[in-house]
Amino acid sequence: MYNYVKVAAAVPNLEVANCYFNQESICAKIMEARHLGIEVLVFPELCITGYTCGDLFFQQTLQKATLDALQRILSATESIDMLVAVGAPLCIDNQLFNCAIVLSKGKIVGIVPKTYIPNYNEFYEQRWFSSAFDLKINTINICSQVIPIGTDLLFSLHNGTKIGVEICEDLWVPIPPSAGLCVSGADIILNLSASNETVAKRQYRRNLVVQQSARCMCAYVYASAGGTESTTDLVFSGHSMIAENGVLLKENTQLIDSDYLLSSHVDIDKLRVDRCKYTTYKETHRAYFKDIRCIPSDVQSKHNVSLDYPISRKPFVPSNLHLRDNRCQEIVAMQVAGLVKRLVHTNAPTVVIGISGGLDSTLALLVCVQAFDELKKDRKGILAVTMPGFGTTNRTYDNALTLIQELGVTRRVIDIKKSCYQHFEDIEHDETIHDITYENTQARERTKLLMNLANKHRGFVIGTGDLSELALGWCTYNGDHMSMYAVNVSIPKTLIRSLVLNIAHTQEEKIKQVLLDILDTPVSPELLPIGKNGEMIQKTEDSVGPYELHDFFLFYVMRYGFSPSKILFLAKHIFSKKETEEDVLFDDETIQKWLIVFYKRFFSQQFKRNCMPDGPKVGSICLSPRGDWRMPSDAVAHEWLKEISGNL
């Protein structure tokens, strides 16, 4: 299903050294996972016997019981379409090995022994187990099968997803085996663990798992022995986690727990796009590439399982309020830092900015104010120009004037209607025809005024346009498209709302109220005449589509290069339900319509992005032709649009 794989960590109830009981618990968890549509399942370290058997590991009775239990697990799972990793001790060539046994459909597909055997503090494993370094064979006859064994194994699903395995301590060493497995092709790492609980260890363990998933650009599924292990000297918590490329997707939060299943989908496309994009990942092949054996498991993808994966309607805006506030402050600080550097470098006494009473110019003005304050420059050096035209409403005009006055910057009001009428006459355009010429005349008149004022006052023009407008080309070429430094250039529209709201709560009451009203005003270029009662007629989202949808499309097109069909699938999934009461629902037809518009505009408007002004990158996505995005202006969207049409 669009390269999502549903994985799980299972922590069963155990009885130490009772292999029959443990096998029953393991099989019960496999059946539970089957019901949930799990494709890859990992159990804790040595779960068939229990991790805490001590010297009982040497007993032939326990060793035989292990093999008997393993055979029963195989028999019970013959019809189970799932890749399962269970932990067991195996005696091989007169040595005991702590192993992960990987099975599917009643067959063992491979065995991976533990490499790094801890023997410090509370750990005493070298008393019982040998390292994978000591293994002298690469196949083993077990349960009437000849099975590959070693640390050089990857296991592939039917859809090509590759899975590697390491065991507990293997993760805690400077260069874990998973590093080599991932650069050799593993998309998912399974870790069978028995990490006991001590004060503050949980956070450290979490950091290890999340950071290793980030370094390896992989999904990491960690299953740890639970509270039914022996408590003679230690307590085991069952702390399990699922992480993906530095993001913790799921975690068991109970302090001490057993008998549970932790599951989540992981997105293989995301991982592979990043591996392909980041060249330093490919460079690590030279140091860590392993000669591997890839063992097919033929586990089929589950297409009828509901998606269990974190997807946000607003991927640029954190849902957590505390994180959102911190993110907003960080972004504004970067905008301010970029402008401060440009002011110092140019030694310009003035910046010139057009203020419309809309969101984008409001944020840009607030950034200018903070930059001037940081440099201890007089705010009067900010020349804020409001230029009412044919579509300017009293609401936006009054908000612009109030904001300028309350912030203490220099105000200039220039009505552009007379100049535009003169221009219509010059180019012989009928002023009653409200076409693109009518609209762009106003946009270019405003830019001309700002540029010439900047020259007159030895300053430079601050651009106000945002990332969403650049993606759609919703700007007038050589009009609002152009400036001398664009502070909002890498900020999408949905995030700009959060930035302005965050700043609003730090301002005195009068400024706060005008900012809140600006936030409540529909987005509009205000280029078409107003209604009879002075109301706003032209609304951007009526023409180009909802920015909430377009920012969602933009994120997955730019950040991960997803196919149109996958983006359509995700959008239908997330926009069919509400996260908050204010959320708007979109039906499938509406989503498809605006996705088509997005691709058509994104491809056709590259020429505007190819000559965009300087501006600071603040997030993972940027459309600067000098940095993140290089695309020919005459590329065509045929293949993308054809794929969407096939999903109508």
Structure description:
The protein is an alpha/beta fold. It folds into two domains: 293 residues, Carbon-nitrogen hydrolase (Nitrilase/N-carbamoyl-D-aminoacid amidohydrolase, 4-Layer Sandwich); 325 residues, Rossmann fold. Helix content is 38%, strand content 17%. The chain is built from 21 helices and 20 strands. A seven-stranded mixed beta sheet has the order 13-12-11-10-9-8-15, covered by helices on one side. Strands 5-4-3-2-1-14 form a six-stranded mixed beta sheet. Helix 1 packs parallel to helix 2 and helix 8 crosses helix 14. The longest helix has 26 residues. It is elongated. The relative contact order is 0.08. The mean pLDDT is 95.
Indicate the topology.
Blueprint: E1 4-11, H1 19-35, E2 40-42, H2 60-76, E3 83-92, E4 95-104, E5 107-113, E6 139-142, E7 145-148, E8 153-156, E9 162-167, H3 177-183, E10 188-193, H4 201-215, E11 219-224, E12 241-244, E13 247-251, E14 260-267, H5 268-277, H6 279-283, H7 285-288, E15 293-296, H8 321-346, E16 350-354, H9 359-374, E17 382-386, H10 394-407, E18 410-413, H11 417-427, H12 436-456, E19 459-463, H13 467-472, E20 485-486, H14 493-504, H15 509-519, H16 540-544, H17 547-558, H18 564-574, H19 588-604, H20 606-609, H21 638-645
Parallel strand pairs: 1-2, 2-3, 8-15, 9-10, 10-11, 16-17, 16-19, 17-18, 19-20
Antiparallel strand pairs: 1-14, 3-4, 4-5, 6-7, 8-9, 11-12, 12-13
